[in-house]
Write a structure and sequence with these properties.
The chain has helices spanning 6-10, 15-26, 42-50, 66-80, 95-107, 124-130, 149-155, 178-190, 230-233, 248-261, 267-277, 281-304, 331-342, 371-396; strands at residues 29-30, 90-93, 113-118, 134-139, 160-166, 194-198, 224-229, 242-246, 308-309, 317-321, 344-345, 347-348, 362-366. It folds into two domains: 6-39 and 282-389, Aspartate Aminotransferase, domain 1, CATH 3.90.1150; 42-281, Aspartate Aminotransferase, domain 2 (3-Layer(aba) Sandwich). Helix 4 runs parallel beside helix 11, helix 5 packs across helix 10 and helix 12 (281-304) runs parallel beside helix 14 (371-396). The relative contact order is 0.17. With 397 residues, the chain is of the alpha/beta class. Bound molecules: 4'-deoxy-4'-aminopyridoxal-5'-phosphate and glutamine. Residues 95-97, 121, 166, 170, 198, 200, 229, 231, 237, 240, 242 line the site of 4'-deoxy-4'-aminopyridoxal-5'-phosphate.
Length: 397
């Protein structure tokens, strides 16, 4: 048999699936893959359920049902002051995952360079490579994850076509500052390229941090493809409804990419999401406040157990430094050990890097869980840490 696609053959199963399977095998509390263990807003769910029953179950329009496109445009105006034509500047996709691929497909030709920022979400690199484009990686360094401006500037050149920016960022919990965004916007304009903006955590920011879409910066309206996810905004990760907002000059190609990937997205879910995006301010505020409380609960608990807890300004995730625990092994071994022995699962942060020289002493914990579940996870980890400490003391005496 002839060899199959070499890039896919060389790509492993996503770390989220691997760790979720390991969690299930060991009866572990899964703080790995980022999904809430509570349901999204009931009016949104009921709207989607009702939308199955009124006879609109055939292919919806390619770029999304009119209600959702109108709601995406209204949401852009309400939160960011962006004026968007719902008929020509919104494309609904099957999740942000598809949107990311569609936006990259819309602009990249084989040989074009695409700037990516590490640590990075796991679909970015394979998709850029599958399109025949050349990734240019720039690394943020823990614990502050500041943008290395000189390195970023050096990554842009005559062949740069796009940058892929994720803010609020998975796994770091970083929210890019206005100054960092201005620096990126300047590079994008000077090199006449595009920005794919993965903003799935746009509403999940804490401590007064506000998400600023790169698209709102001067000169960036025509260059950005801004991606949102109903999964994150409505705590309904299984729904896989994403939405791209971009200039009409880009939306045609994004829509044609979508046409060749999935063509359309389930109409009832789209209609549910349309109800969600029109919800009042209180919903969005309490979403963030609720998550901030969960972040604090898990973060304080992990700190008390001896983890180094890095600050998180947004997203579902806390990154922890495992070195203070004295574990002999890397992040992969650690996440496996806590899954099997403590029965709590986390994600090794090396999974978010392209090469093996990544820092290998960080573990990512998801805090989008019920408080009792977070408390039980902390109790299990506490017992595990204490048992290991006692074992070390016995060995030393
Ligand atoms: N981008 C980032 C940074 C994510 O963490 C996720 C997680 N789901 C996605 C994209 C994908 O979103 P969706 O589930 O809507 O495809
Ligand atoms: N975005 C989720 C995370 O980072 C996982 C999504 C997935 O499993 N593909 O945990």
């Amino acid at each position: 048999m002839q060899p199959q696609n070499s890039l896919l053959s060389a790509t492993g199963t996503t770390i989220f699936t691997v760790m979720s399977a390991l969690a299930a095998e060991h009866g572990a509390i899964n703080l790995g893959q980022g999904f809430p263990d509570y349901d999204g807003p009931s009016d949104v769910i009921h709207a989607a359920a009702a939308a199955l029953l009124d006879g609109r179950n055939q292919y919806p329009p390619l770029t999304g049902v009119p209600e959702l496109r109108a709601a995406v445009a209204a949401h852009n105006r309400r939160f960011y002051g962006l004026e968007v034509d719902p008929a020509a500047e919104v494309v609904v996709t099957s999740g942000a995952t598809e949107a990311i691929t569609a936006c990259l497909m819309a602009v990249l030709n084989p040989g074009d360079e695409c700037v990516l920022i590490e640590p990075l979400y796991d679909t970015y690199l394979p998709v850029v490579k599958l399109l025949g484009a050349v990734p240019r990686l720039v690394r943020l360094s823990p614990p502050r994850w500041e943008l290395p401006r000189a390195e970023l500037a050096a990554a842009f050149g005559p062949r740069t076509k796009a940058i892929l920016l994720n803010s609020p960022m998975n796994p770091t919990g970083k929210v890019f500052t206005a100054a960092e965004l201005a620096f990126i916007a300047d590079l994008v304009q000077r090199h006449d390229c595009y920005a794919v903006c993965d903003e799935v955590y746009e509403h999940l920011t804490f401590d007064g941090w506000r998400h600023i879409p790169l698209m709102t910066l001067p000169g960036m309206r025509q260059r950005c493809m801004r991606i949102g996810s109903a999964g994150k905004t409505f705590s309904l990760t299984g729904w896989k409804v994403g939405y791209v907002t971009c200039d009409r000059s880009l939306a045609g190609n994004v829509a044609k990419a979508h046409q060749n990937l999935t063509f359309t997205t389930p109409p009832n879910l789209q209609r549910g999401v349309a109800v969600g995006l029109m919800k009042d301010e209180a919903y969005f505020r309490s979403l963030a406040e609720g998550l901030q409380a969960r972040r604090d609960r898990l973060g304080k608990g992990l700190e008390a157990l001896g983890f180094g807890v890095l600050p998180t300004q947004g997203s579902y995730f806390i990154t922890t430094d495992i070195r203070p625990l004295g574990f002999a092994g890397d992040d992969v071994a650690f996440c496996r050990a806590i899954t099997e022995e403590a029965r709590v699962t986390a994600i090794p942060v090396t999974a978010f890097y392209a090469s093996p020289d990544a820092p290998n002493h960080y573990a990512r914990f998801a805090f989008c869980k019920n408080e009792a579940v977070l408390d039980e996870a902390l109790a299990r980890l506490g017992a595990w840490v204490a048992a290991r400490r006692a074992g070390r003391q016995r060995a030393a005496s």
